[in-house]
């Protein structure tokens, strides 16, 4: 079965280069291109078997990263990432809150871009360390200092596995917990971090855990 990706970006040369990388380095057979959000939605609706969708934030129809929430709602299992020239932490958090699987800067070197996209395709949430730290700083500034020591040991274990990209089922198996118990711990962690979903939690917590 052929592997298909969608690139939504109004810069034709960038689309061309990214399409080449997807085919040459990541094994995609077909890359559908779109120059606006509406065109991208049409491609998604018309094409079966899409395995990855990449969206720029600055193109016709894209009001903000929040516009991707509707895409996520329609395609809950599709790996979706922002590929953007923005380094605004608000864009990062808004995109993650919308449910995307990653925020990839356009300035990444080719090898780093490939590694980021492989991570997303593998089920992980990708945010570069520099942007993740900025996102965490922005959250702390808006909601007070986040102290992970206030989490229970079990909540911290759950958070650590979440940051590693583990699913709820994998977390439950690793910690010998029930699926419902994992959900309860995650809800408590989300409240503590001031976020509403897994992706935003990873962006906020990853740099904090890295600092110990």
From TrEMBL:
InterPro entries given in the database record: CheY-like_superfamily, EvgA-like, NreC/VraR/RcsB-like_REC, Sig_transdc_resp-reg_C-effctor, Sig_transdc_resp-reg_receiver, Tscrpt_reg_LuxR_C, WH-like_DNA-bd_sf
Domain Response regulatory: from-to ranges: 4-121
Modified residues (4-aspartylphosphate): 56
SUPFAM superfamilies: C-terminal effector domain of the bipartite response regulators (SSF46894), CheY-like (SSF52172)
Domain of life: Bacteria
One BP annotation, GO: phosphorelay signal transduction system
Classification via PROSITE patterns: HTH_LUXR_2, RESPONSE_REGULATORY
Sorted UniProt keywords: DNA-binding, Phosphoprotein
Pfam families listed in its UniProt record: GerE, Response_reg
Positions of the HTH luxR-type domain: 144-209
Molecular function terms, GO-annotated: DNA binding
Protein name: DNA-binding response regulator
Organism: Phreatobacter cathodiphilus
